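Hi there, hope your week has been kind to you so far. Thanks so much in advance, here it is:
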Amino acid sequence: MNTVLYFSPDGVVYETRAFSNADIAELVHNWGLESLTSADHQFDFWFTPSPPRCRRKANRGATEMVLATTRFTAKTVPLLRGGVVVATHDAAGELDGLSWEQLDLLIQNSGTVTRHDDRVLSRRITRDDRRQQRDLAAAGATTGRAVL
């Protein structure tokens, strides 16, 4: 049984269990899994890519954790969407659970996001939300349907 963290789209973080990649896929509601690995190769961030026309808000908590554990900057970190699972892997590359030490390290890393990073990320997320609204409105105008 592997302890993993699930960053829900609504901002709540849950500690849960996963036995395989299929369990992770079920948590993020898709089989098109992709992953990023932290700079120290300790943490794997599992997520699903958002289709181009799919409107999903950025998962700020997960995006901040990627920022805190990788070499991305607030300007270059990918905006993760939907549910995101954080796990680790063993020497063979297979899914493994997070230890208490790793959970503590994630908490410590989360405190490394600066106010400047927070402002830059907030601006990016706001711009992204506005762009999605414009795209949604434009799609509604071309189909003649009202979009709420």
Summary: The chain has one domain: 2-143. Helices lie at 21-27, 60-69, 100-110, 115-143.
